[in-house]
Amino acid sequence: MDAPTMWRATTVQACGLWPFAAGSGSPLTGVPLGQHLFTGATVCGDPLSWFTRARYISNPSLFMLGMPGLGKSTLVNRMLIGLAATGTVPLVLGDLKPDYADTVRALGGQVIAVGRGVGGINVLDPGAMGEAALRIGGEAGRSLLAEAHGRVLNMVAALVTIVRGRPMDDHEQSVLSTALHLLRERTPGRVAVLPDLLALIGEGPDRLRAVTLDRGDTARYRDAVDPLHRSLMGLLDGPLGSTFASATSTRIDPGAPAVCVDISRIGEADTQLTAAAMLAAWSDGLGTVAASHALADAGLAPRRWFFTVLDELWRPLRSATGIVDRIDALTRLNRSLGLGDAKITHTLKDAEALGSDADRAKARGFVERAGMVVCAGLPRTEMEELGKIVGLSEREISLVSSWSSPPGWATGGVHDEPPGRGRFLIKVGGRPGIPIRVAITDAERDLHNTNTRWTPSTPATGT
Ligand SMILES: Nc1ncnc2c1ncn2[C@@H]1O[C@H](COP(=O)(O)OP(=O)(O)OP(=O)(O)O)[C@@H](O)[C@H]1O
Ligand SMILES: [Mg+2]
């Protein structure tokens, strides 16, 4: 029997047919996500619209958890498409699978591949910030340049941290900072690369020597800079290959409607390069955001909002100590940067696997601070743990844990979908959760089918 047709109407019309209409209470601001599981009402939402227009949340950030394969990335892809339609720029700064490259391409955006032999990022390049500073000029331009300097310094320090496995010393940071200033003065009209920095430290000009307190003694200078010199050499010819040694292969286009930095060709075992590429992509991408806002402040460009996605969060978190701090800084700043973000991971246990207590606390802070928490199917123990952070009722816990059960034993070759695929519970503050069902369109299925490698190949037809 066919399912009865469903009609929608305003309460002005429908009350003629059924006078006892009541509002369903589901939010209708933002990207259409799916239907309420119990009432069938349309549910819309995304962290940016709920922060700016609906004011349901005080922080434009989304944290999504759930077992693998239940449709988390697919739902965030839908948010990307919806937000792009409103003029927001999606930025996927480090796509690990890739889950978003096809969507960004379909939106007319820019996809930049980074990896060994595929494409590199010059971490000394101030990128869009440098260009914007020149266009703006004056006091505002100078302060943007200073910010760009800080960003480059942080990025080189982060790379050194990754190859060393521990943070840089304070005095090395000041040597590095002076060296970067000198380098900019010496290479007017072109962007310096890491080998230039290495040569400068090797040469040891007077102004650089002064910061090391060498008192005219070359041996003292060498003692002070040798560890840094060695680490920088390790950057150019070590675990990171030559990915950061030459000019950026493709710069982020500040006018692109969407940007995806695809790092999927870096092998999963290559954790150092993954972390380094991800940090470089964030640094570059967030620099582009800062440049865009500075241009808008100066009245030189229209104001644009951005939406960043950090999928597979557990991978960068585990790849290097210090990464949690970076993500932490990003999330704390995103409101002032005009930036919404979505973080996706499997379970809260991903935070527990981190090395230090401080890192674990910071990673849990991501969930605590997220304006919007979305759960796909999770086992009961996980939901109880999550309930301590976001406040979940017994019914909500039972509902979401039922979505984590496996599909039935299908017979006769009929594919049984996992019961939780496309089911999500949206939690905001202490409000009751909104359970939704997401039905994907064929276009979405084609854009994001992570099971393609499980589809039997059709035999090649010979001619
Ligand atoms: N609502 C849906 N209805 C039907 N199929 C879906 C739905 N959402 C996703 N899928 C399909 O399920 C598969 C897995 O989806 P997706 O990659 O989004 O899951 P995920 O939760 O991100 O998994 P992982 O944790 O492994 O990244 C994809 O092939 C996708 O096309
Ligand atoms: Mg995914």
Automatic annotation (TrEMBL):
<dbReference type="InterPro" id="IPR027417">
    <property type="entry name" value="P-loop_NTPase"/>
</dbReference>
<dbReference type="InterPro" id="IPR051162">
    <property type="entry name" value="T4SS_component"/>
</dbReference>
<protein>
    <submittedName>
        <fullName>ATP/GTP-binding protein</fullName>
    </submittedName>
</protein>
